[in-house]
Amino acid sequence: MSARASRRTTGDQGAFEMTNFLNFLLLNFRNCIIASLILALIMIMGFGMHNPNHFDQSFWVAVVRWIHVFFGILWIGLLYYFNFVAARKTPEIPAELRPALSKYITPEALLWFRYGALGTVLAGLLLAYLRGYLVQTLSLGLAADPASHAQFALMGIGMWLAIIMFLNVWGVIWPNQKIALGIKEADADAKAKSARIASLASRTNTLLSLPMLTSMAMYQTLFG
User: Fold this and answer.
1) Residue 45 and residue 119 in one domain
2) Are residues 125 and 99 in the same domain?
3) Which of 45, 58, 137, 197 could form a Cys-Cys staple with 156, CB 3.0–4.6 A?
4) Buried b / exposed e along 25-57 (16+ C-beta atoms within 10 A)
């Protein structure tokens, strides 16, 4: 075998192995998320090691904030998927193809959606507790020093909007979606009614989402 042919064979083998590695890493959702989490944990440890006080309370506050942001992206991202894409485009899908959505895609999306909401609220409340302003914000500034009443009230409005949205997910959207999707047995009229209720509740959360996000982002930037 000539040197050129040998190099070509070696190159082909290397390309084949790289393709297999990329398929293993990127085409498998579980492997991709695990790899992403490992990289994130390495970075988190790096921040802790280079933090002036290392792994003190401020470090753990940062970790909880990271968890809060992750679940928030998951929750609101799926909320916007349902409202920006699914609710608008589903009526254009031929009727014979829609069962694929209701049987496979929507139930899976709702699983991540509702637990994203749960994770966001729990991590957010823990973050507010660790930062020392849980009571001040939930009381809309009434339990705070008068000088900081307004800023805690503004943050508290966002927190209560998030809690209302969370209760909407678990108390209205999910119970009605179970009926609308046929997960819970019901007749056609009940399914149609539940689908409308779930749609209105989801659109209500969309309405509340931007004020809620404004409260969170503006508070952390201006007062955090």
Assistant:
1) no
2) yes
3) 137
4) eeeeeeeeeeeeeeeeeeeeeeebeeeeeeeee
